[in-house]
Design a protein that fits this description.
Elements (H helix, E strand, L loop, with lengths): L2 H12 L2 E3 H11 L5 H13 L4 E3 L4 E3 L8 H17 L5 E4 L6 E5 L2 E8 L4 H10 L10 E7 L13 E7 L5 E6 L2 H4 L7
Parallel strand pairs: 6-7, 7-8
Antiparallel strand pairs: 1-3, 2-3, 4-5, 5-6, 8-9
Helix pairs in contact: 1-3, 2-3, 2-4
């Protein structure tokens, strides 16, 4: 698969709008020999060839001109995708998921499920997580990560498998707000 095909696949299968620096990081994780400059040039070529669009004001790349998604939905997708990309290792497996998860990443023997939680949605998302129970024997291999919106009250997030609660900084970096020990991560889950 060429780098241009990889960029097309990223937009068709994973995300429709992404910050440019996250797209660069994604390419560098897939192609470890690629420099930051080369990844930026590949994205610029994709933009020039009309495979995707670049909004200089927001530094976002999108599959379509003027994406029809709301700003909050774009924020959720981009934040969760950033966390997923940072978790990628040499297995390079990242998958789009359905609510309450945005993405899942296979990293060695662990599966990371990533959710984006808007302010005021901490309890409803925790309840949705309870509905997506993980068998007790699979819990040592499953990690859940909550990416929260600024202003979220993380005290309302239940212990439903989250190993980390984080947010995306204004610099587009994952900032861990709370790490939960493995023995406490699943305490609020109902037993099978």
């Amino acid at each position: 698969m060429t780098i241009q095909e990889t960029i097309q696949d990223m937009f068709h299968e994973l995300i429709t709008v992404v910050p440019k620096d996250t797209a660069i990081l994604y390419l560098r994780k897939l192609y470890p020999q690629m420099t930051e400059k080369a990844a930026g040039m590949a994205l610029n070529r994709a933009i020039f060839d009309l495979q995707c669009n670049y909004d200089e004001a927001t530094d976002m790349i999108s599959m379509y001109k003027g994406p029809s998604l709301s700003k909050s939905r774009i924020t959720a997708m981009a934040g969760a995708f950033r966390a997923a990309v940072e978790l990628m290792d040499s297995t390079k497996q990242i998958m789009k998921c359905s609510f309450p998860f945005e993405y899942a990443v296979v990293n060695g023997t662990k599966m990371y499920e990533i959710s984006y939680i808007f302010s005021g949605q901490e309890t409803p998302v925790s309840l949705a997580m309870k509905m997506r129970n993980v068998a007790e024997e699979m819990r040592p291999f499953t990690r859940r990560i909550a990416i929260v919106e600024y202003g979220s009250d993380i005290s309302y997030i239940q212990r439903v498998g989250f190993s980390k609660i984080a947010r995306i900084s204004v610099e587009n970096k994952v900032e861990v707000l709370k790490s939960i020990p493995a023995e406490e991560a699943w305490l609020d889950m109902d037993e099978d």
